[in-house]
Amino acid sequence: MSNDIFWERLEQFDEVSGSKVLALRDIAYLMNCSLSKIANWEYRYDDFPDGSYILDFGTPRYDKQEIVSWLVEKSIVEEVK
Question: Would 78 be classed as within a structural domain?
Fold first, then answer.
């Protein structure tokens, strides 16, 4: 996935929703990958951010800044300088 696409999608997400939390499906959209890939990261990585925001129907939500920081820390996306 292009690093630029991630940052463009994140900016669009911010403009449209203004939300500070993400569902797994939002992370998959931002990363342009499957929901199952994101769920696997959540399962496999002990340091994957906790889904501490439970909103609708018990769906966990993740702090957007924690997710972005984790993706950069893992070198999954490159930080914009």
Answer: no
